Amino acid sequence: MFQKIRELAIDETLLSWEEICHVASKFPSLNSIFSSANQLSSLSFIPNAPFTSTLVSIHMEFNDFTSIAELAPLAAITSLRNVHLKGNRIATITPTSSPDDVPIFTPNLHYLDVSYNQISSWSFVDSLPTSFPGLTSIRFAHNPIYDNPDLDNQDTSAATTTKAASSTEEAYMLLLARLPPTLKIINFSTITPADRSNAEMFYLSRIARQLAAAPESDAPQILACHRRWAELCELYGEPTVVRRKETNPNFLEARLIGVEFHLAGETMRAQQQHHQQLQQQRVAAVLDTRTAKIPKAFDIYAVKGIAGKLFGLSPMQVKLIWETGEWDPVAGFDEEEDGDDSEEEEDEEEPAEENQAQSQAGKGTGRWVKRETELKDSPRQFGYCVDGLEVKIRVEII
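Now predict its structure.
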């Protein structure tokens, strides 16, 4: 009489996993099991259960699992496509450091829900492709890592303050960048090519900042925590790492800022035209980059004069743009992760074409842009307008 039953709900019964399997074995055509709020903390292997060849989705929300390894028996179910683990206490892939204990699920498993758990380490995210090689969609919202997603909070002792308003957005970008391109959906939101490229470049900039804050001898240890480093450097080029030396504030060098001035391509052409029109002299070959040591006490007028002299331009025709190397969010970011859970099954694999179009239209411009600041004419001291002892400034002709 149970031959045609496809779904079985055994929520809030406090049955053990063995008892649940015993009941489920009476339903040979099951493709979904709901076993939420049963205080389950680990699973045992399922011996000869008929549903292991037909099961597609398993819901184990609001139980007591603390690691993915405690669900290792599910890796033997080759037909499994969706695993729902919302509201558990999962913090790690495996409680041990042995690679032999890492569970590897079937490549047919495409969707994983680990929202509302206790994940606070990026090492968990880095291990996901190993345990879930076929993962294309994930729900990861409402984990502690969203509160402080900065790389420094895990890998180095240097700590940076992250504004609460952007922490969720930054966590989303780092999550996307640390997972491979096979991932198509995060928190019910389709990933566009612009989303991925922006996230990966943002991730590279964060790694460079982390390397700059640590001694050079620690670089191999830091890079070992970023498994996609080599891959991303091949795609976008290795970022420049500028390590700032600790300088005695009483020394003269502590009062100087090393500035790298450079001209954009359009500015170079404009500069050449300027020389050709206004000067009837031979113009020497112009380099696109010049460096100078400028005292912090100089005002912006003096800095513009130095930049103009370096490139043979009038200071009145020069505009200075400080390239900070940091990234800022653009527009607003509306979290889609708190959508109606009743739509999970439709969203977790192939979202409707209309939703995809809306997602692409909303994200086509990307979420993050490089932060640049124009150094406007003023008597303000140069040291108050920029940060650090090494800065990069783009010179443009007005």
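The radius of gyration is 28 Å.
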